[in-house]
Design a protein that fits this description.
36% helix; Rossmann fold; Neutral Protease, domain 2; 17% strand; 5-stranded mixed beta sheet; binds zinc ion
Length: 467
């Protein structure tokens, strides 16, 4: 620890950094939860610096109050056009610092790793050769061990232009820096930084933090002004819905819009009510295959989810899922909030002609629950602590399928009853007990005995809704 701290002190000089970091992390080519703030939290904020995110087209981002740019992407089809390279170059020439974190990967059957289009003009290429451990660091970087998640090597066109700071066991470059104009360019294996979505793994923070401070130090910024993030800049209004996307996502915009248009009235039919007021006004296209999010008024859709656009089912299910999250508001559903969203997604797909795929999702999900609750009479969805996630999902699907056999429009009837009975002016929370009250109203009979027989310990006494 002492050696590390001495090395860090040598690298940046004593005392606090004179120029605080104002960083922008690019998540416009590939969205990951980690780079949406976690990287900054681990390596930039602890230095007293600030970090913001760029969701928009890179060369349109205003870099005037930024002195550090963090670029990263994995196997994404999003290109780095010449305008992006030019923006990075002029930022470097005026003293900015740029860190390129790469890990060679290609998108589906593409043959190129697009981040290399950005590295190549500066003489650096991420290769597909796996790195050999252990890594060796230059003493100017750290006297300690280098931690890594593995990674692949970097090829430098003219190594003499670079200061190589980390090599793998075979002498291949893992991290290097060079001057470009007044600025500093760092290329590094992405495996040298953390990746946990909960930011629990700040590996190599002892040298990353001072290295980033030094990299950013060539450009003055105005610390009285916060660095500003940028949303996807294309904003298209269409039938009351706004679609937000950056230029790289443009090829997907129209087709997703069309699918969304097709889905929306059918979701309304399944749910039996219009979307919750003020909800569902914006659709954001995310460059990821990792699902989406809903914040009520905005839905983020990972555009490569479920092998989209080659296959359609996953996108329909995802739109159904995320829309349901908005639809159920102002009260999120209790324990079954996530499964019910996918259940609606599967019903939606079935109504849109993806009959088999929708049914397969429902059957597969129910199967998963049968391993732990074979007769569907033990797992208590009202007290789900310790109940495996697969059981929560499968039992939810099974319950709704049971009710749907008796009342094909039970989903619509349930949400109609919920709108009628769950008054946001009166209710603070909406529990499984409340859901059982609403479900009973929707079915027109008391479901409490049935639910209790199934091991779901709900009681009218514990419900806030007393119709
Ligand atoms: Zn969800």
């Amino acid at each position: 620890m002492t050696t590390l701290m001495v090395a860090a002190a040598l690298l940046v000089g004593q005392g606090p950094a004179e120029v605080p970091i104002h960083a922008v992390t690019d998540i416009s080519h590939e969205f990951t939860f980690y780079f949406d703030g976690r990287f900054g939290g681990q390596y930039i904020q602890p230095t007293g610096g600030r970090n913001t995110m760029n969701w928009g087209t890179l060369h349109k981002y205003d870099l005037s109050n930024i002195n550090l740019m963090v670029l990263q992407s994995g196997g994404t089809p999003c290109p780095y056009p010449a305008e992006d390279v030019a923006a990075v170059r002029s930022f470097l020439e005026e003293g900015g610092g740029v860190v390129v974190l790469g890990d060679y990967a290609t998108f589906r059957d593409e043959t190129r790793y697009h981040l290399n289009d950005l590295g190549q003009p500066f003489g650096a290429q991420f290769t597909m050769t796996p790195a050999a451990q252990p890594f060796v660091a230059s003493p100017t970087l750290t006297g300690g061990e280098v931690e890594t998640y593995g990674g692949r090597t970097i090829a430098l066109a003219s190594p003499a232009d670079w200061e190589i700071l980390i090599e793998d066991a075979e002498g291949e470059t893992m991290l290097a820096r060079r001057s470009v104009g007044e600025g500093t360019l760092v290329v590094a294996s992405r495996a040298l930084a953390g990746h946990n979505p909960d930011a629990s793994d700040d590996i190599n923070a002892s040298w990353w933090q001072p290295l980033l401070v030094e990299t950013a130090s060539g450009k003055a910024i105005d610390p009285s002004q916060q660095p500003q993030g940028a949303p996807p800049e294309n904003n298209v209004e269409h039938g009351g819905l706004r679609l937000q996307y950056n230029d790289y996502m443009e090829p997907y915009a129209e087709i997703i819009f069309d699918i969304y248009d097709e889905c929306l009235p059918v979701i309304a039919e399944i749910m039996g009510v219009p979307p919750a007021e003020g909800m569902l006004s914006t659709l954001i296209l995310l460059p990821t295959g990792g699902g989406g999010f809903s914040s009520g008024h905005a839905i983020g859709l990972g555009v490569w989810w479920g092998n989209f656009p080659d296959e359609r089912y996953g996108m329909v299910e995802l739109i159904g899922h995320e829309a349901t999250h908005s639809w159920v508001l102002p009260f999120a559903e209790p324990t079954w909030n996530e499964p019910i969203a996918t259940y609606v997604g599967a019903l939606l797909a079935q109504r849109l002609g993806l009959e088999e795929e929708g049914r397969a999702t429902i059957e597969r999900t129910i199967e998963r629950a049968r391993q732990d609750d074979p007769n569907m009479d033990t797992a208590d969805l009202a007290h789900p602590e310790g109940v495996p996630n697969g059981v929560v999902w499968g039992k939810t699907f099974w319950l709704w399928e049971q009710l749907r056999q008796e009342e094909p429009e039970i989903v619509a009837k349930y949400f109609q009853a919920k709108r009628r009975l769950a008054d946001p002016g009166e209710l603070e929370t909406y529990s499984m007990h409340d859901a059982a009250v609403v479900l009973s109203e929707a079915m027109g009979r008391d479901l409490f005995p049935w639910l209790n027989e199934l091991g779901i310990e709900v009681s009218r006494d514990e419900a806030s809704i007393q119709p």
